[in-house]
TrEMBL record:
Domain of life: Bacteria
Stretches assigned to the Peptidase M1 alanyl aminopeptidase Ig-like fold domain: 455-560
Taxonomic lineage from the root: Bacteria, Pseudomonadati, Pseudomonadota, Betaproteobacteria, Burkholderiales
Keywords annotated in UniProt: Aminopeptidase, Hydrolase, Metal-binding, Metalloprotease, Protease, Zinc
EC number: 3.4.11.2
Protein name: Aminopeptidase N
């Protein structure tokens, strides 16, 4: 459908890339900070790029008031340039110029949180991807890199802290109640990495000694009252610095490194050079307010942004189509960092499984939906819409495949060559691939298809055992479904890891026919490069159980007809933790899909003994890490079940999944109670992996126990809530009480209401905890649209705060499918009204909420009709941002 109210914004294509007409060498900026009218003076030294086809000087600017424009000291008349809503174009300029610009900004009116904006009286910036153009007119593109010197001036009482990128070189009083601070960033950077912070902040700081012996200053800046929640972020920063030195030989290059937290932020965090700005969610933590998941998230995000200092800042993207060059690589690095910090193989495996679960739940559906795009997109309307799980998480899997193919040392050699060639440059995904190939003498030409082809490949495997010849043959075929604009896909270069298990659980040494290996391995990586391969293993004395796609060696869907007995065998014995967990997931998904069908047909629901006993064995196996046992016991989500169905039926899915939970609770009650008691963590709270794993299993057991209507188990949850010494256990108890199948039981309704009220009263001054309070209710299976509208009227709810909007609206639309997809369409109507309201405030956040209806054609016809009406209502809205318009237009085109 085409919107009749407005033209769809211009589509930008990767193939149309043109180098900038001018390079920038230095940027000097002066800010006189005032919320209503911040004055910005900018001096830019530029030189013509004779290799570019652009002859005019093209500057980008939005929502700015232009006061003065000079070239080489001469004021330009209005007739000398063209000024539009988004561009300033100057013709006939000399090859070498000093451009001086004076602009002003109404930062207090900027609700988009892009550019310079005010939050709780403090100034912040967010310039990625295209926010710098809201600060001054500039060639705001990532391939234009320069050094920056920044002078900040402001009222000393209102803005006692003045921060920018790089090193502080001068500060003092101005004598009129104002003061100044001058910052210099000695490293060239693109404008999207510019940052400014000013306001009333306090910091925790430490002097830190680098491996080279050089000392640096580390600071974590927060608002008054939050200093007691900064230690974990500081520890995570120090661990990140140490890890990057040891794993990749990369040292912090500035004299100081700063993290600043704000509650009003569109993203998780931003890697601005030396001045990272974070959402408070990924900085603030103590045991009273943060869960184990929060602690892990802070560690991961602090690591991610710090690692960007080299993979993103020192070497950046030539253009935004190359976004995964920095993001996919840095996600891989932060995943490896978190895995290494655990310190053991089981902990690394748990981390790997958690990452794969995210990929499957969010990225695989994106690959199959209207917003499907390659890791390196070919086009976009609004770049903010391409900060996606495909670019980040699938991009990370692409980097991990290099690691799998080249090995630990080979990957490090590739990274070293990458920095040797490209430090201080803006480059492409092809440049990274070339470094990996050249450093290892490998031909990775075909590997490029992971960047250029969208969709999730499918790998179909068929096996044949020849008892007489003692051979085991695998026929492996790869294919990839069509996606928008890409009907026919060429074969990918797929690393395919496998092992073969004997009946006793041990593993065969793997010897391929025709190949002689002195020490045959028990795990092997095959390289799939053709549409079809056949591999024959010799010396296989009994029919094995294949362990396929070990450690999830490629982001593909594996198709193999396992029997229940084979899956149970893998779950009990596989040495590869991922495949062991995967076997349990396959057992569960197989039953869940059959039960959904039984619900739809009105049949009696039953759960077989094989599955129950397989989970019982895992639950009681004390040789397994508690965190791993919790992962096995966690059923596939309702979203993942829906993706396995041709036509998704959210209500039937919910009923089937809840039936499995209740049945397991009844069958395993004694085992669950024992697991609960055996995994208590008395004493002072510790956020380490071992303690977190025990809490995870204990709270998983509690969630199951409450599924069975028993006053004693419900009382157990209530008691845990009342006596909890940490937020992890408190939240787990409250979640169990609100989300169980018996949550509609009137016998416990009063207790739930009392606990919810107590939780709010206890934490009403802790914004991040109140986000949890909203999330608990938005995701509860008892919460419908009527209750949602009531919660949106709560004094603590604000649509203008991204965290609050995500905690309520996003959770309801994306994590409560049975209620969101109500047959009367009320959920879709709420979605449409919320997207329209958010569009006026913050288009980026509105566009992300718009994605909730991406997969609308996957639902029953009656739901589709109501979803389409909601999409059309949003599409027809006047003054719709290009962020939202791109999403809903692509969704409607899917019909």
């Amino acid at each position: 459908m085409r919107n009749t109210n407005q033209d769809v914004s211009t589509t930008i294509y990767r193939k149309d890339y043109v180098a900038p007409g001018f390079w920038v060498d230095t940027v000097e900026m002066g800010f006189d900070l005032d919320p209503k009218r911040t004055h910005v003076a900018t001096r830019i030294k530029m030189r013509r790029n004779h290799d570019s086809s652009e002859k005019d000087l093209v500057l980008f600017g939005e929502d700015l008031k232009l006061h003065q424009l000079r070239i080489n000291g001469v004021n330009l008349k209005k007739s000398a340039y063209t000024l539009t809503k988004e561009r300033l174009v100057i013709s006939n300029v000399p090859d070498d110029i000093t451009l001086e610009i004076e602009t002003s900004i109404a930062a207090d009116k900027n609700t988009t949180m892009s550019g310079l904006y005010v939050s709780n009286g403090n100034f912040f910036t967010q310039c990625e991807a295209e926010g710098f153009r809201k600060i001054t007119y500039f060639p705001d593109r990532p391939d234009v890199m320069a050094t920056y010197t920044v002078m900040l001036r402001g009222d000393k009482k209102q803005y006692p802290v003045l921060l920018s990128n790089g090193n502080l070189i001068e500060q003092g009083d101005l004598g009129d109640g104002r003061h100044y601070a001058k910052w210099e960033d000695p490293f060239k950077k693109p404008s999207y990495l510019f940052a400014l912070v000013a306001g009333k902040l306090v910091c925790q700081e430490e002097n830190y000694k680098l491996k080279s012996g050089r000392k640096v200053l580390l600071q974590v800046w927060v608002e008054e009252g939050n200093l007691d929640k900064t230690q974990h972020a500081m520890d995570s920063l120090k661990n990140s610095i140490r890890w990057d030195e040891e794993r990749f030989g990369l040292e912090l290059d500035l004299d100081r490194f700063m993290i600043v937290a704000t509650s009003d932020f569109n993203m998780g965090a931003m890697e601005n050079k030396g001045l990272n700005i974070f959402n408070t969610k990924y900085v603030l933590a103590n045991s009273r307010t943060a869960t184990d998941i929060d602690y892990a998230g802070i560690e991961s995000v602090v690591g991610h942004e710090y690692f960007h200092n080299w993979t993103g800042n020192r070497v950046t993207c030539r253009d935004w189509f190359q976004l995964s060059l920095k993001e996919g690589l840095t996600v891989f690095r932060d995943q490896e960092f978190s895995g290494d910090l655990v310190g053991n193989e089981t902990g690394r495996a748990v981390k790997r499984i958690e990452d794969v679960r995210v990929l499957r739940q969010f990225q695989f559906p994106e690959d199959a939906g209207p917003m499907s795009h390659p890791v390196r997109p070919d086009s976009f309307v609004e770049i903010n819409n391409f900060y996606t799980v495909t670019v980040y998480e699938k991009g990370s899997e692409v980097v991990r495949m290099y690691y799998t193919l080249l090995g630990h040392e080979g990957f490090r050699k590739g990274m070293d060559l990458y920095f040797q060639r490209h430090d201080g440059q803006a480059v492409t995904c092809d440049d990274f691939r070339a470094a990996m190939a050249d450093a290892n003498g490998r031909d990775l030409t075909q590997f490029e298809r992971w960047y250029s082809q969208a969709g999730t490949p499918r790998v179909a495997v068929k096996a044949h055992y020849d008892a007489k010849a003692k051979t085991y043959t695998l026929n492996v075929q790869q294919s990839c479904p069509s996606t928008a604009g890409q009907e026919n896909k060429q074969p990918f270069h797929i690393p395919f890891a496998l092992g073969l298990l004997k009946a006793d659980g041990s593993e065969f040494a793997l010897q391929l026919a025709g190949a002689k290996v002195k020490d045959a391995p028990k795990s092997m990586v095959l390289e799939l490069t053709d549409a079809e391969h056949t591999f024959t293993f010799t010396g296989i004395e009994q029919e094995p159980t294949p362990s396929l796609l070990r450690n999830f060696s490629a982001p593909v869907v594996l198709e193999f007809e396992y029997s229940d007995q084979q899956l149970a065998h893998l779950l009990a014995h596989d040495s590869d933790a991922f495949c062991r967990w995967e076997a349990g997931q396959r057992l569960a998904m197989r039953r869940l899909l059959k039960l959904v069908e039984a619900v739809q047909q009105g049949h009696v629901l039953e759960l077989d003994a094989i599955f129950i006993e397989a989970l019982r064995k895992t639950l009681n196996d004390k040789n397994l890490d508690p965190a791993f046992r919790e992962l096995v016991l966690t059923l596939p989500s309702e979203t993942m079940i829906a993706e396995e169905m041709t036509i998704a039926d959210p209500i039937s899915i919910h009923q089937a999944r809840q039936f499995v939970r209740a049945t397991l609770a009844q069958a395993l009650k004694a085992d669950l109670l024992e697991a609960y008691q055996n995994n208590l963590t008395p004493g002072k709270y510790k956020a380490d992996a071992a303690s977190a794993g025990k809490r995870a299993l204990k709270n998983c057991a509690l969630a199951y126990l409450v599924e069975w209507p028993d006053a004693a188990t419900y009382a157990l949850a209530h008691t845990q809530y009342q006596e909890a010494e940490n937020m992890t256990d408190r939240m787990a108890a409250l979640t169990a009480m609100l989300h169980c199948s018996t949550a509609t039981d009137k016998a416990h309704q009063k207790t739930r209401e009392q606990v919810l009220k107590h939780f709010y009263t206890e934490f009403k001054n802790e914004a991040l905890v109140i986000d949890k309070w909203f999330t608990l209710q938005a995701s509860a299976p008892t919460t419908d649209v009527v209750q949602m509208k009531s919660l949106m009227k709560h004094p603590a709810f604000s649509l203008s705060n991204p965290n609050r909007a995500r905690s309520l609206l996003f959770v309801f639309c994306n994590a409560n499918p049975a209620r969101f997809h109500a047959v009367d369409g009320s959920g879709y109507a709420l979605w449409a009204d919320s997207v329209i309201a958010l569009n006026k405030l913050n288009p980026q956040v509105a566009a992300r909420l718009s994605r909730s209806l991406d997969r609308w054609t996957k639902y029953p016809v009656t739901n589709q009709a109501l979803m389409k009406l909601a999409l059309e209502k949003v599409a027809a809205t006047k003054n719709l941002s290009k962020d939202v318009l791109e999403v809903v237009s692509k969704a409607l085109a899917a019909s």
